[in-house]
Amino acid sequence: MESRAKAAGHAIHQQLVVFPLGLLATAVVFDVIGLLTDNGRFTTASYLMIAAGVLSGLLAAVFGLIDFTGIPKETRAKRIGLLHGAGNTVMIVLFAISWWLRGNAEENVPGTMAFVLALLAAVIAMGTGWLGGELVGRLRVGIDDDANLDAPAKFTTHISLKKQ
CB 139: neighbour CB atoms within 10 A? Predict the structure, then answer.
């Protein structure tokens, strides 16, 4: 099934998800650097990145929901889409709580709970990112009207580099 919301011929959701994923992942990295070096500039940058990541994640979610509503019921794609969306909702909420908890801290240094929530949210994002990749790459959701929305998962235990 092709995306219901497109810009320049491509699914808007797929174009927008790079922003929250990049911002939120980098925020966690900056937290680690800031805490290891005791440099408040990194934790302040992380605080701002989380705010931007949550807002851009909410925008991406709107277009993801539009595409999700077009997936036929009783398909593997619908089940994966539900897990993908629910997991991303949890992830965004955890990052938002982490952001809120560090709001009054000096130089926005995360406390233990704020840091743990951001780490947990980042782990969830890796899982939901994989699910999103499964939807687009394997099941062709948002790309192809002739997609096989019930294609089975294909797990491999190695990486193969094919010569072109």
Answer: 24
**157 burial class (0-12, 13-18, 19+ CB within 10 angstroms)?**
exposed
Structure tokens at 115: 């840091």
Q: Cβ contacts of residue 30 below 8 Å, gap of 6+?
A: 42, 43, 45, 46, 49
Which residues neighbour 92 within 8 Å (Cβ) at sequence distance 6 or greater? Answer: 20, 54, 57, 58, 61, 121
DSSP label at residue 75:
S
pLDDT confidence band for 134 (50 / 70 / 90)? confident
The domain limits of the chain are 6-138
Query: How far apart are alpha carbons 127 and 124 in whole angstroms?
Result: 5
Output the pTM of the full model: 0.86
Helix (H, G, I), strand (E, B) or coil at 148: coil
Reference 135, options 7, 8, 9, 17; nearest CA is 17
